[in-house]
Design a protein that fits this description.
Length: 443
């Protein structure tokens, strides 16, 4: 009997020692985990934290560290479980703040705002708290509240680049693009590595036709993200817009190396080569584009323009006919076809094409002018004058056209009107009109 009593007593002593020692063992494994905190062996850190919490599930330090480890490892659900348990044990502003970051990652912005409200309720005045609440409110479309929070963050820390950036987004969401661009500018002034700010600012610059500014932003975007092929294409496109055709070709070739079947890239590369008078390269890339989409009328039209520059008028007419076959209501193609007929002194046909161009585009004033010239050369001076009138209403500073209309008025026996036009042409600096005035207006 005494032996049994001794055995039971020994077991009770061991049990007491074990339970008394559990917190110490837990702290031991927690300290072991700290050894790996600054190393790459996060699995060893997690293993020791799991052991620490096995011996004492209420080890607050171990629980907080494991939650942070889960967060940094992008294991948000596991982090949330730990922070929930941690907050059931002890409510601190730090724990509420850290849980709010988990909620933000999980896109539960309403819960994030609630946690951040509690953090502020503790009396904290930290810029990060207002920034993240502003970010969350913005994501909930609570833009006015977001503005207040982000402005408060900037008030606390005037060099908070992310806060300026996020406030710029909020201003844009509210439709105030000018103020948003000021915040993006400030964000980039503080942190010129903010890729998203460049991407947002460049859209504003494009909308305002600030192509040089857009190119500058794309330079920065490409420097930060060399593999961004679309940025090369966009930069090439805007270089084309400011007539930097060599620069455009350089960017378009970069795109071609990566995505040789990019239709728009091939088309603009061809046009850029054409502007550089490198017609062979222009035709080469135009043919590649045609293989991708043979139904695109513009490709035939562009090829016709190249043939005109090469003085291959028959080939140009064929391409223009193909362009019109793909798109009958193509005013530019009809106009250009009319020009080719005029070059060949086929004025009746040229007038027909100019009429079609005007039919499909009523404000095509160059077509009115071209039709006036063709009609004048056909001896239809009164009809020519009508077309000159339309053109000059919208182009009142074109001295050469005033002179041409004067010549048509001479042929239409309107000498007084002709002299008025020659005088106007002279006033506008068109010197050849002086000779016409001397010839017809001395009496």
């Amino acid at each position: 009997m005494k032996k049994w009593l001794f055995l039971v007593g020994a077991i009770l002593i061991i049990a007491v020692v074990y339970f008394v020692s559990k917190p110490k063992i837990s702290n031991y494994y927690y300290n072991e985990a700290l050894i790996f905190q600054d190393s790459l062996k996060k699995d060893m850190m997690l293993e020791n934290l799991n052991k620490a919490l096995k011996f004492n599930e209420e080890n607050i330090q171990a629980l907080a560290l494991r939650a942070k480890l889960y967060y940094n490892s992008d294991k948000m659900q596991e982090a949330l479980v730990d922070y929930n348990f941690l907050l059931s044990l002890v409510e601190t502003s730090e724990n509420f703040f850290n849980r709010s970051l988990v909620y933000i990652k999980l896109k539960n912005f309403k819960a994030a705002v609630q946690d951040l409200d509690k953090v502020i309720g503790f009396g904290n005045k930290n810029a990060d708290i207002y920034y993240f609440r502003g970010l969350s409110n913005s994501s909930l479309n609570n833009n006015k509240e977001a503005l207040k929070d982000l402005t408060e963050a900037i008030k606390i820390d005037s060099l908070y680049a992310e806060a300026y950036h996020q406030r710029g987004i909020v201003w844009a969401n509210l439709g105030d693009l000018e103020t948003s661009i000021l915040d993006f500018n400030k964000s980039l002034e503080i942190d010129n590595k903010n890729l998203d700010a460049y991407n947002r600012r460049v859209k504003y610059r494009i909308d305002n036709s600030d192509y040089k500014g857009a190119i500058s932003d794309y330079n920065a975007i490409i420097e930060l993200d060399e593999g961004n092929i679309d940025a090369y294409y966009q930069r090439g496109y805007f270089k084309y817009q400011i007539q930097d055709y060599q620069g455009a070709v350089s960017d378009f070739l970069k795109v071609f190396e990566s995505t040789p079947a990019n239709f728009d890239n091939l088309k603009y590369m061809s046009v850029s080569y054409s502007k550089l008078k490198n017609y062979e390269e222009a035709l080469k890339y135009l043919q590649k584009a045609k293989k991708i989409n043979s139904k695109d009328a513009e490709l035939y039209y562009r090829q016709a323009l190249i043939y005109i520059k090469q003085k291959k008028l028959n080939d140009a007419l064929k391409e223009l006919n193909l362009a019109i076959q793909q798109k009958q209501s193509y005013p530019e193609a009809h106009y250009t076809k009319g020009v080719v007929y005029a070059f060949r002194q086929m004025f009746k046909k040229s007038v027909t094409e100019f009429c079609l161009a005007i039919q499909f585009k009523n404000n095509y004033y160059d077509a009115y002018l071209a039709r006036a010239v063709s009609k004048g050369l056909m001896g239809q001076h009164k009809e020519a004058i009508v077309d000159y009138d339309v053109y000059l209403v919208h182009n009142p500073l074109d001295g050469e056209v005033f002179c041409n209309r004067g010549i048509s008025k001479v042929n239409a026996k309107d000498m007084e009107g002709a002299c008025v036009d020659f005088s106007k042409a002279i006033d506008l600096g068109y010197k050849p009109a002086e000779e016409k005035k001397v010839m017809y207006c001395q009496n």
